[in-house]
């Protein structure tokens, strides 16, 4: 039996968040939704399958059937190997033909290496596509956690969707302060308050920008650069949290010659590869018929993807950088040295 993946590939979503922030509660709630019944779940820690016992059937094998046709497995090796095994079993018909993969990380995980390994595995590209990072942040304790824990800051900075969990029991002043801090760390994403893991799936998924059918709204939401002006957010505050992690955007009005773009990125990677936590955006290359989608994590980049048209007619190059210890002025100066 050979079951083809959906057009554009099976979407893979990373669910991350610090210890006790509600990742497992969120997944348990989502997997009860009929529209998510055909999902696969990868738990990024052996023996840590903490989903509701009514949802999961325990088994000795690393892949088990869940009620509603879901699949769950504990990651016992590299992520690519786990996804490859799921693909083989899907094609053989030994598991349901799942239509989405949700990866739950450990609470102390830095999402960068996980995404980097996924993007670097060319063997998975014909089956899967990356669809976004969902980060849970505890509305009660999140502010202190962000202050103390670098992993929590990385998780929030990487997010395509930010969920404020326990919002029903957190004081409003704490929620307001947390929103302000998250806006400084990741201004392109508006946090969504949730209680007991209840959230509509359509608010979390659908940033399928590598799908040729992606809409303008999906691309713009994935890019998340609307709150930026140059290297600063609209409120004219530097977009940073502490001295380590920053989110910044590079904007160019005129098309970039291909040689300039290539030289800029080659030198950027040579000099600061490990500190480029994530790069995403649209680039206008001179002579190209449309925008090219850029997406990379710590030096591992997906192939440049031509899009059918410019979202909303905005033809500017807009590249969002999430970096550790790199200033926007340094990146800007590097690009200018090639122009």
Automatic annotation (TrEMBL):
Q: Which reaction does it catalyse?
A: GTP + H2O = GDP + phosphate + H(+)
A GO term for molecular function: nucleotide binding
Name the keywords, alphabetized.
Chaperone, Hydrolase, Nucleotide-binding
Q: Does the keyword Methyltransferase apply?
A: no
Q: Which Pfam families match?
A: cobW, CobW_C
Q: Where is the CobW C-terminal domain?
A: 245-339
SMART domains for the chain = CobW_C
The record's Gene3D superfamilies line, in alphabetical order, gives: CobW-like, C-terminal domain, P-loop containing nucleotide triphosphate hydrolases
> GO cellular component terms?
cytoplasm
Superkingdom classification of source = Bacteria
**Function, in words:** Zinc chaperone that directly transfers zinc cofactor to target proteins, thereby activating them. Zinc is transferred from the CXCC motif in the GTPase domain to the zinc binding site in target proteins in a process requiring GTP hydrolysis.
What the entry lists under PANTHER family is as follows: COBW DOMAIN-CONTAINING PROTEIN, COBW-RELATED
The entry assigns this protein to a family as follows: Belongs to the SIMIBI class G3E GTPase family. ZNG1 subfamily.
Q: What protein is this chain from?
A: G3E family GTPase
Annotated organism of origin? Plasticicumulans lactativorans
């Amino acid at each position: 039996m050979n079951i083809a993946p959906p057009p554009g590939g099976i979407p893979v979503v990373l669910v991350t968040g610090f210890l006790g922030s509600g990742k497992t509660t969120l997944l348990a709630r989502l997997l009860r939704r009929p529209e998510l019944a055909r999902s696969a779940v990868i738990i990024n820690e052996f023996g840590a399958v903490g989903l509701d016992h009514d949802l999961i059937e325990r088994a000795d094998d690393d892949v088990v059937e869940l009620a509603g046709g879901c699949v769950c497995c504990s990651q016992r090796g590299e992520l690519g190997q786990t996804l490859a095994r799921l693909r083989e079993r899907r094609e053989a018909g030994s598991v349901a033909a799942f239509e989405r993969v949700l990866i739950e990380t450990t609470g102390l995980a830095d999402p960068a290496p996980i995404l980097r390994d996924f993007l670097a595995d060319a063997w998975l590209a014909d089956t899967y596509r990356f669809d976004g990072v969902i980060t849970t942040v505890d509305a009660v304790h999140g502010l202190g956690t962000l202050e103390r824990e670098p992993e929590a800051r990385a998780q929030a900075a990487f997010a395509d969707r930010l969920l404020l969990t326990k919002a029903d029991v957190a004081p409003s002043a704490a929620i307001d302060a947390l929103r302000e801090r998250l806006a400084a760390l990741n201004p392109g994403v508006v946090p969504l308050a949730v209680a007991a893991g209840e959230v509509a799936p359509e608010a979390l998924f659908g940033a399928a920008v590598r799908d040729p059918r992606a809409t303008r709204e999906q691309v713009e939401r994935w890019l998340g650069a609307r709150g930026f002006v140059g290297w600063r957010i609209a409120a004219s505050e530097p977009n940073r949290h502490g001295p380590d992690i920053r989110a910044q955007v590079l904007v160019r009005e005129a098309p970039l010659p291909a040689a300039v773009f290539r030289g800029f990125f080659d030198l950027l990677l040579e000099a600061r590869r490990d500190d480029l936590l994530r790069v995403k955006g649209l680039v206008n290359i001179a002579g190209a018929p449309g925008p090219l989608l850029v997406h990379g994590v710590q030096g591992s980049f997906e192939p440049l993807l031509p899009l059918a048209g410019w979202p909303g007619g905005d033809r500017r190059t807009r590249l969002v950088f999430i970096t550790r210890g790199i200033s926007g002025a340094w990146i800007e100066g590097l690009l200018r040295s090639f122009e």
